[in-house]
Amino acid sequence: MISGTTQIIFEDNKVIKIIPYRSCMKTIEQVLKYLYTGEIVINEKNYEKILKCADRLGIADLRAYCFDYMVKNLTKDSV
Q1: In this structure, is the dihedral angle defined by the CA atoms of residues 32, 62, 13 and 19, taken in order, positive or negative?
Q2: How many CB atoms lie within 10 A of CB 12?
Q3: Which residues of 42-79 are buried (b: 16+ CB within 10 A; e: fewer)?
Q4: Which bin fits 4, alpha (ψ -120 to 50), beta or left (φ > 0)?
Q5: What angle do CA 63, 26, 77 make, to 5 degrees?
Q6: How far is CA 39 from CA 14, 15, 65, 74, in A?
Q7: pLDDT at site 50
Q8: What is the C-alpha separation between 19 and 78, in angstroms, rounded?
Q9: Do the Cβ atoms of 47 and 55 come closer than 8 Å?
């Protein structure tokens, strides 16, 4: 479980500080796991939160996965 401030240090020495809120802890944990493993489960319940987090952190490939999920799951009821 993540608590307090978390820092992510990328290969280019770019540092991002994350100050999580309780409501987004699970999403941050999923995104951090993705950064380390390259694996994430995107579904109807989490794609919006993951997309927002990926956008905020500038994780382009994760954003693309979220957009792909949205496009593949478009229906006339969801538009």
Answers
A1: negative
A2: 5
A3: beeebbebbbebbeebebeebbebbeebeeeeeeeeee
A4: left
A5: 55
A6: 22, 22, 11, 23
A7: 94
A8: 32
A9: no
Enter the tokens of residue 18.
């994350």
- Listed as ranges, residues in the chain with pLDDT below 70 are 1-11, 15-23, 79
Distance, CA of 33 to CA of 58 (rounded, Å): 16
Q: What are phi and psi of 66, to 5 degrees?
A: -65, -45
Q: How many CB atoms lie within 10 A of CB 34?
A: 20
Provide the token pair at 38.
Answer: 């390259």
pTM equals 0.69
**Three-state SS for 61?**
helix
